[in-house]
Structures are given as structure tokens and as C-alpha cells.
Amino acid sequence: MSSEETPGDPGNPIPPxxxxxxxxxxxxxxxxxxxxALPLALPDAGRARQDIRNAxxxxxxxxxxxxxxxxxxLLAVVGGSTGAGKSTLVNGLVGxxxxxxxxxxxxxxxPILLHHPLDAAWFEDxxxxxxxxxxxxxxxxxxLPANQAGPTPDAAAISSLVLVSDGAVPQGIALLDAPxxxxxxxxxxxxxxxxxxxADLWVFVTTANRYADAVPWRLLLDAASRDILxxxxxxxxxxxxxxEVRADLQAMLSREGLGEARLFVVPEAALDAMGMLPAxxxxxxxxxxxxxxxxxxxxxGIARRTLNGTVKALGARVEAVAQAARAQQHAGEVLxxxxxxxxxxxxxxxxxxxxxxxxxRGEVLARWQDxxxxxxxxxxxxxxxxxxxxxxxxxxxxEPAPAVRVETAIETGLQAxxxxxxxxxxEDVDQRWRSDPAGRQLLGSDDLSGTSDGFADTVAAExxxxxxxxxxxxxxxxxxxxxxxxWLSFGINGLGAALMIVVFSMTAGLTGLEVGVAGGxxxxxxxxxxxxxxxxxxxxxxxTAREDLHQRCQKLLQDEQQRFLSRxxxxxxxxxxxxxxxxxxxxxxxxxx
Length: 593
Prior knowledge:
The protein contains 20 helices and 8 strands. The protein has helices spanning 20-34, 45-68, 86-94, 120-124, 154-157, 186-197, 214-226, 242-255, 283-294, 296-355, 362-372, 376-383, 385-398, 401-434, 437-443, 455-478, 485-503, 513-533, 535-569, 576-591, and strands at residues 74-80, 112-115, 133-136, 160-165, 173-177, 201-207, 229-237, 262-267. Strands 3-4-2-5-1-6-7-8 form an 8-stranded mixed beta sheet, sandwiched between helices.
């Protein structure tokens, strides 16, 4: 039913709902909250997640429905503690048994909504409390629809709302008998909270010996934060204690910001055979509700007061969620920095291993010596460069295989270094994340302390691609040197091997004889390249090859670190500033009302 329709409404019609801009804003808030995940195990994350659930429920159950139909009947939710006498009170207000203590079928735990017959259309659809299905209840002795025969299963009971049409309920207001707020059933407690959050006004029932209980007061304080109209019913009060108990409860209400709450006292009295209170026991409360129902402007004022207070409280809740999202974002940045830092350090160690001569040990050094020889090659270089060129030309024409073996040895050695450092980085990140509750939650039972499947093959392929790129550098550099065409035609693999040796030729880190041998053989490679291309070209080639290797190592390890970072990316897409903007807009909406 739209806000312009006022079926059988006594008094003046209430002005239609606010312009669509407010509803648009509220729908945007709902969408933003629905997309907000707070996955990291931070101290306040659980509370913020509950805030999100509560805010979404209140938007669906109350705020959006009320904005769309300000002229709908007021919903007065009757809530309270176990045994406070809520059902008996509701029966007393309408003058006959209608609640689960009496004659309504089914007689399970569904909340019961009593309304005037002319107000039925407001509640039969899903306008308010849309997550609860509707069941049409009947009074004692009335017909029972076939699909309601027998008790309703618990799962269905807690997700449905029993609608009872009763002419004793004043038109313009509906009474909803909610489950106990301190029920032993978690589902009942949650449902009670949901119903109270959807109320335009509360009728809160307590007793002379339980009015200071903690659970009801938590809900009353929530009412104060929403500026909701509250009527407190002090039930079963011994006449001798009425003055003292009333004064004490009134003082407590004033201290907690509920000084304007209406306080009604129901004296202790025997129930009749039907379980009914004496007829005059609830007269003051019944009269007050009838007066509210008869005053259309007053009802509109109550609806707007509760609505504006609820929107203001929603703004504070959304801002709290925004702060929680910022905390999540910061924690995610710390975890991401740990991952990036560990892998960047690993890249640095790999590059250091390519600079300090460490790769010229062992198999690489042996294959290089096989390639150039250990004595004759040095003598050729020392005598004159012309003889060196002649001997190298013959060497390259006749023996290409040793150069390939140098490349293979370099590939194997470099692959081992990259895999080892990637594994070290993964173990470092895994340990850091597991020492942090947020990181531990993201990792769960997955073990990411080693390299990913297939990483060794990926590294080998990348090294071969680097070697191929290096060969292309040599081929490109030699194309403009006609006098060197013979060298390139017969010895490009040899020149490539020599360039790789030059790239790895800084000898810090080698010791003993290896320094002399490795350093000497690196000089051989450098002299060979200088003889073919010139000194400046060799420096440029070596620098380009080293930068290319750096970039490839960087990419390999960046891809590896994504195993960790992707877990953050999948969960931390929330924009805290967007949430704060929505919170500010909600505060303005409430202030402008």
C-alpha cells in the first residue's frame, strides 16, 4: 500500500512519505553495507559484523518500509522478560484471550500481530518485517484453515508472523506480542530483538522484582539511542510496594535518558478462570493507546520521531562499520607489506648472487673452463688480439656444444638460487602471517611455506627466455658490424655464454683459487666481447642483460607473492570513505527532518 492510501483512517490523513531522495540514500546504504566484509580477525570485527547484520535488518524491517509509508498504522511491540506477563497484558488490552496463552492457533512460538480489521492491508503483504512469512490466525472457536492444522514446526514458527484481525484493537495502531528478550532459545532472543527494532513504539513489560535486570536495560538503552517512544509497564506490583518501586524505576529511567517514558503500573491481582486480569487493571494503558490511535497528526509525529532517531542511530552504526573497515584495511596493508617485503628481499638476494660471482662456482665454472680452455686461451689473449680472433673463430666453428653446456649450467645454477630464495620468502611470510591473528585466519589450514606447484618449471622457462633475449641482444648488436659477421655467424652461442659470464663476473664472495680462476675466466669473456663489439658496447650489453634478468626475477617472485596477496584482495574491497560519506548523509537526513 502506498503512502498516499489511507484506508478508513480516522482523523486527518498523514502527509505522504518524504521525497524519493531519502529512499535512494537508504537503498545505497543498504547496498554498501551488504557488500561490506570484515574478514580479518581483529578485536572489534565481530561487533562490527553484528552491527552490519543489525543495520541491514533494521533497514529492511523498519526504516525503508516506514519511509515509504509514513501514514501506515503504528506498530507497538510488546516486549519484556520471561514471565513478565506480556501475553496476559495483551489479552487484557483487547478484553479477551487472543495470545498463545489462550486461543490463537497455531499455539507455537510465532509472534502474534493484532490489528484492526480495516488495517489488515498494511500488514498482509511484506511491507514491514519482510523476512517473516504471514499466517492468518483465528480466535477461539473460529475456523482453522487446513494448512494450519496441528502445531507448526519450530523452524517455521520462528520465521512467521501470525496476523489476527480484532475489532477491539483501535484503528491506526497494531500490537505485536514478541518472544521473551531473555529467552533460553537463541532464535527467540534474536527474533525479539528484530521485532523491537521494527517498532514505532515499545510497550516494555517488567515486574516489581525484575525491573533492574540487565538484558531488558540493554534494549531500553538502545531505545534511548533511537529516541523511540517507550511505555514501561510495571506488572504484578504489590499495592504496599507500589510507591517505592515506581519511584525507583522512574529514577532509573531518568538516569538512562528515558525520563519521558510513560510508566504504567499493573497491580498484583488474581486472574480469572480464563487467565484474564481484572477489567480495570490495564485501563490507563488501554486509554493511552486509544488516544494515540485517534490522533492522526500525533501518530505521524511518533512515526517521524522514531524514524529520525533510528536513522541517526543508523548513521552512528555505519560510521562504526567504516572505522572497522579502516582497521581491516590497515591490518591488510601490514600483512601485504610483510609479503611484499619478504619477496622483495628475496629478489635482492637473487640479484646479489648474480653480482658477487657466486654463480661462477662449481658446474658453471667447470663448463666455462671446458669451453675456453685453461692455458692456451689465456696465452692467446696475452700475446695479441689478432691471434686471439683467429683461434676463437676456429673454436666457434668446430665446437658449438661446449657453449650450450655453459648455458645449461648457468640455467641450473640460477634456477636453484631463485627457487631457494622464493621458498625462503614464502616461509618468512607464512611465519609472519601465522603470528598475527588476522593473517592466521586468512591462511587457515593451507600451507604456503614453500613455492607453488610448477614454480621450478616456470623459473627454468623464464631463464631460458632470458638467455634467448640475451642472444638476440648480441645478434642485434652485431648486425651493424660487417667485419664481425663471421664471429656472429659461427659463434653467437659462445658470445652469449661469454656475456652471461660477464653479467655474473663480480667476484666478491669467491675465495682462494676460485677468485683467480673465476675472475680470470670472466676477464676472458669480457676481452672476447670487447674484441668483437668494443668496450662501450660490452658495458651496455651487460647492463641491459642484467636489467632484463632483474625484471624477470621480479616478475617471478611477484607472481609467487600473489598466493598471499590474493587472499587479501578477495576480502578487502571495501571503501571506508564511502561508508563514512553514507554515515554523514544519514546524519544530515535525520537533522533535516
